[in-house]
Amino acid sequence: MMTDKENEMATEKLVSVQVNGETCKATVPACRTLLEMLRELGHAEVKCGCEKGDCGACAVLFDGKVVDSCLTLAWHADGHSVTTAQGLGGPDNPHPLQTAFIEHGSAQCGYCTPGMIMAAKALLDDIPDPSLEDIKRGLSGNLCRCTGYTRIFSAIHAAAQALQQQGTAP
Q1: Architecture of the 4-84 domain
Q2: Is this model's pTM higher than 0.70 or not?
Q3: pLDDT digits (tens, 9 = 90+) for 22-66
Q4: Superfamily assignment of 88-165 in CATH?
Q5: Rg over CA atoms, the chain
Q6: For a tag on the chain, would you pick the N or C end, based on fewer CB atoms within 10 A?
Q7: What are the residues whose beta carbons fall under 8 Å from the beta carbon of 70, sequence distance 6 or more?
Q8: Domain segments of the chain as ranges
């Protein structure tokens, strides 16, 4: 009979995933979530909120589609691409969504912001000129307890306009 440690080691998997364009390899237990793996790899921008898919704080792009990383097993990411908010842009070259969130005061405590930005990115990739209803639907899996959403909606609308003016909207 195997001990718990022996059982865990027997079910570990080596995964190779592109995170923000960089190949990352990790050996993870079969039960490890993508959220846990990303945090262990140092991606603190992926927030651990509810751990049951209700809040969207852990949202990332998985092959371009928004997913809750707390509900995705790490080994499912093997051979795939994951983008976090950090992968969109940084202080020297922010993505228009990041700029708009700052300019519109769309973050108060900031905990939900990375997940909101990732959901908004997926939305704008699908609908470059979203209506308010499109934005609400696109963010329906993300919760914010501080802002009341109005500034978030304004920021996404402004980012959509900026992307269209830059000619980088899909």
Answers
A1: Roll (3.10)
A2: yes
A3: 999 999 999 999 999 999 999 999 999 999 999 999 999 999 999
A4: [2Fe-2S]-binding domain (1.10.150.120)
A5: 17
A6: N
A7: 33, 34, 35, 48, 49, 50, 51, 52, 53, 58
A8: 4-84, 88-165
